[in-house]
TrEMBL record:
Domain of life of the organism encoding this protein: Bacteria
InterPro entries assigned: PilZ_domain (IPR009875)
Record-annotated PilZ domain positions: 3-107
Name of the molecule in the record: PilZ domain-containing protein
Length: 119
């Protein structure tokens, strides 16, 4: 059973995602929604764990930017690609204006699909 609050949206670019606390690469973003995202990476991640994550991207002028989120790993396991593992994160700090703005920027500029599909 799918317990998502929002539909996933495909992203046009596979952004690199890091554990911001350790600066460790954890994988590439596979999809994004207003409530969370999925990451494809080299290892299974601990679930029920709150991570501080960083997503690196470029703004509309090409300058490097980073979106930082507190996100909880809801599930993690083997992917259909035997070389990867996938992890689903729920974002937990959307009350932060900075995190909300970064998420809106990523959703607006880099996702494929109609924003009206989220209801």
């Amino acid at each position: 059973m799918d317990n998502r609050l929002f539909r996933r949206r495909s992203i046009a670019i596979n952004f690199r995602v890091f554990d911001d606390a350790t600066d460790t690469f954890i994988g590439r973003m596979g999809d994004l929604s207003p409530g969370g995202f999925m990451v494809y990476g080299p290892a299974v991640l601990a679930t029920d764990t709150l991570y501080r994550l960083r997503v690196d991207y470029q703004d509309d002028k090409g300058a490097p930017r980073s979106a930082r989120f507190k996100a909880k790993a809801m599930w993690s396991g083997a992917d259909v690609n035997p070389e990867l593992f996938s992890t689903g994160f729920r974002i937990y700090d959307l009350e932060s204006p900075t995190a909300r703005k970064a998420l809106e920027d990523l959703l607006h500029r880099f996702t494929i699909g109609d924003e009206g599909d989220d209801d």
